[in-house]
């Protein structure tokens, strides 16, 4: 885990941001079960498993109309 | 002073002359019912009044100021409630009113005061949720609040009650009627009962111009047709009455439908005609279940006009 | 220009509440970090993909590589994402009808265009700056005392191009009602600029080079003075596009 120690300055913030995005998206998915397409389960998977891209796709394309 | 004056307004969409030499004046503090069939041009007219649509020719003035397409200066006198109001769903009611107030140029304190008052008035005072979670009725009510925010001289409502249930409808009509003292209301609708309920002026838009225009009482007076409706316990009784009535010298037409009879009288001496019916009933020993003088209804007037 | 300030506040509120700001900052932050990181790790990455026995001599990475990545990331993915995120800025308001109420209250049509443009440029600037600051920080950490020449100019050029692109997009949005249409139109103009770039004379004045020559400036392959014409053209286009958008929008039927 030498790389980890050496590059913690990178990995930590990256991790934090991705976590923040994923969590924000997740909370939104759970609280607002209206989506333009797809189901709640699908979006949970997308948001949690597809780093960075997942939440972005959700917020840009998958989120329900109003809001 | 007339709050709204429209002279010789014309608008054509492709082949169809939607508005054809329209003349309309709305006096101050009136509750003006603007009715017409679907597609008659009510919304088109309103859009032109608001400067959202350009007329082909004609003039529109609001409180003496001309209305010009694309400019919205005259709109500071107007509050507009569209038929399907759309708001920014991510805001809550207060935030939206604040935005409206700022755009109209109201000072911050005034916005807060008015928002509070109006939200109470329309029954949204205790809602903190975002507009995306509003029901249709709530959106309509917010619509009235935002339309009245800057205390406009003219409130224009496009089909304010069409999508509401009876409770919602009554609420909106009450609010509109209450607003009459402070402003003038122009509402378009095809729900005639609403018009009869709160409007004092009525205009029917047909064929691009006003087929009928005046205060509600004037119009009814002018179209008063003497007639009576009676209903009997059985069709036989009704038939018997009809037979006798036909030979009555006052009767112009007698129409029977099952147990119901409609009598149209020839002369406008209502009292005489009515009395003779009562005499006939007594003579024939008939007791009607219902005996009613026919008042001209808006529906009759409307049907007549659009023939 | 009634209502400009109020509507600008609303645009900014909207970008927060619709999570646009969050996404932009997060993504550009990541770009900012990835640029120096990938530059540093590139030799290791490359060699790990090569089969046994073959060694590749790759030059030791420098700050230049980091900034190269920065420009690549921000000018491609970054800009595209930003434009896509804002693609609905005018279209959705028109189709949904939220603008009508605002206009009837006295919001001037010019104010609509200007406030939306201001918001877009502000957000683009903030995001871009985020990436820049982060790259600067991490590059200073990984490649100390190594600052390529003309860095500020290069960074500025790309920023100006981004601003130009936003303005172009907004103009397109006033011409075409749908957001997709506006995107396609903007893309088409960009493609046109790319094609025109083949001619050396056009190259000099082409705003697109503000986004193409960034690395070249850093290696001194191109001199700053060669960018001035394009900078001027872009700067002139800017008010022209705004005027075009304002005029078109005023005429537009709702």
TrEMBL record, chain A:
Cell compartments where the protein resides: Cell membrane
Transmembrane segment boundaries: 6-30, 42-61
Primary localization: membrane
Topology in the lipid bilayer: Multi-pass membrane protein
Pfam families per the UniProt record, alphabetical: PLDc_N
UniProt keyword terms in alphabetical order: Cell membrane, Membrane, Transmembrane, Transmembrane helix
Domain Cardiolipin synthase N-terminal: 20-63
Residues in the signal sequence: none
Keyword Cell membrane: yes
Coiled-coil zones: none
Xref: InterPro entries: CLS_N (IPR027379)
Protein name, entry field: PLD nuclease N-terminal domain-containing protein
Organism: Paenibacillus brevis
Taxonomic lineage of the native organism: Bacteria, Bacillati, Bacillota, Bacilli, Bacillales
From TrEMBL, chain B:
Source superkingdom: Bacteria
The protein's name in its UniProt record: ABC transporter ATP-binding protein
SMART domains according to UniProt: AAA
Domain ABC transporter: 4-232
Source species of the chain: Paenibacillus brevis
Keywords: ATP-binding, Nucleotide-binding, Transport
A Pfam family assignment: ABC_tran
Family: Belongs to the ABC transporter superfamily.
InterPro entries to which the protein is assigned, alphabetical: AAA+_ATPase, ABC_transporter-like_ATP-bd
GO molecular function, one term: ATP binding
Automatic annotation (TrEMBL), chain C:
Transmembrane segments: 21-39, 77-96, 117-141, 153-173, 180-202, 227-249
Keywords recorded for this protein, A-Z: Membrane, Transmembrane, Transmembrane helix
Source species, domain of life: Bacteria
Pfam short name (any one): ABC2_membrane_2
The protein's name in its UniProt record: ABC transporter permease
Annotated source species: Paenibacillus brevis
């Amino acid at each position: 885990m030498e790389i980890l120690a050496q590059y913690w300055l990178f990995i930590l913030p990256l991790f934090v941001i991705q976590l923040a995005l994923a969590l924000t998206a997740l909370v939104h998915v759970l609280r607002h079960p209206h989506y333009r397409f797809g189901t709640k389960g699908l979006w949970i998977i997308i948001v949690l498993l597809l780093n960075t891209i997942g939440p972005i796709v959700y917020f840009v394309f998958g989120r329900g109309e109003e809001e | 002073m007339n709050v709204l004056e429209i002279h010789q307004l014309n608008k054509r969409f492709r082949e169809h002359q939607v508005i054809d030499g329209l003349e309309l004046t709305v006096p101050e503090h009136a509750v003006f019912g603007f009715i017409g069939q679907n597609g008659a041009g009510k919304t088109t007219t309103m859009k032109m009044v608001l400067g959202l649509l350009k007329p082909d020719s004609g003039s529109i003035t609001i409180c003496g100021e001309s209305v010009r397409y694309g400019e919205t200066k005259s709109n500071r006198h107007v509050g507009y409630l569209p038929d399907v109001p759309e708001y920014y769903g991510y805001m809550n009611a207060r935030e939206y009113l604040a935005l409206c107030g700022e755009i109209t140029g109201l000072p911050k304190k005034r916005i807060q005061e008015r928002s509070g008052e109006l939200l109470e008035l329309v029954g949204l005072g205790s809602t903190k949720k975002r507009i995306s979670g509003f029901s249709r009725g709530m959106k309509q009510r917010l619509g009235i609040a935002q339309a009245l925010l800057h205390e406009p001289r003219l409130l224009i409502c496009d089909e304010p009650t069409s999508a509401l249930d009876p409770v919602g409808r009554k609420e909106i009509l009450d609010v509109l009627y209450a607003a009459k003292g402070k402003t003038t209301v122009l509402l378009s609708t095809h729900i005639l009962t609403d018009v009869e309920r709160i409007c004092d002026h009525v205009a029917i838009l047909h064929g691009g111009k006003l087929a009928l225009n005046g205060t509600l009482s004037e119009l009814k007076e002018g179209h008063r047709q003497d007639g009576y409706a009676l209903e009997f316990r059985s069709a036989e009784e009704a038939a018997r009455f009809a037979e006798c009535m036909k030979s009555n010298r006052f009767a112009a037409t007698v129409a029977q439908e099952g147990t119901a009879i409609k009598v149209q009288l020839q002369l406008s001496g209502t009292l005489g005609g009515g009395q003779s019916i009562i005499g006939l009933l007594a003579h024939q020993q008939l007791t009607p279940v219902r005996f009613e003088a026919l008042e001209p209804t808006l529906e009759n007037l409307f049907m007549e006009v659009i023939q | 220009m009634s209502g400009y300030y109020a509507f600008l506040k609303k645009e900014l509120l909207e970008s927060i509440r619709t999570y646009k700001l969050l996404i932009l900052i997060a993504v550009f932050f990541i770009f900012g970090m990835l640029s120096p990181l990938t530059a540093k790790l590139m030799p290791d990455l490359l060699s790990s993909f090569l089969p046994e026995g073959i060694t590749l001599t790759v030059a030791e990475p420098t700050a230049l590589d980091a900034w190269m990545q920065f420009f690549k990331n921000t000018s491609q993915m970054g800009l595209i994402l930003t434009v896509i995120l804002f693609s609905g800025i005018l279209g959705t308001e028109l189709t949904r009808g939220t603008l009508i109420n605002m206009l009837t209250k006295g919001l001037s049509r010019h104010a609509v265009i200007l406030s939306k443009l201001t918001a877009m440029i502000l957000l683009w600037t903030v995001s871009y700056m985020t990436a820049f600051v982060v790259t600067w920080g991490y590059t200073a950490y990984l490649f100390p005392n190594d600052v390529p020449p003309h860095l500020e100019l290069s960074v500025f050029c790309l920023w100006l191009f981004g601003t130009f692109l936003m303005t172009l997009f907004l103009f397109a949005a006033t011409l075409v009602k749908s957001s997709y249409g506006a995107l396609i139109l903007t893309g088409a103009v960009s493609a046109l600029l790319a094609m025109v770039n083949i001619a050396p004379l056009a190259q000099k004045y082409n705003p697109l080079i503000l986004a193409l020559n960034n690395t070249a400036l850093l290696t001194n392959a191109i001199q700053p003075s060669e960018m001035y014409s394009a900078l001027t053209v872009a700067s002139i286009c800017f008010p022209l596009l705004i005027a075009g958008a304002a005029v078109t929008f005023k005429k537009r039927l709702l």
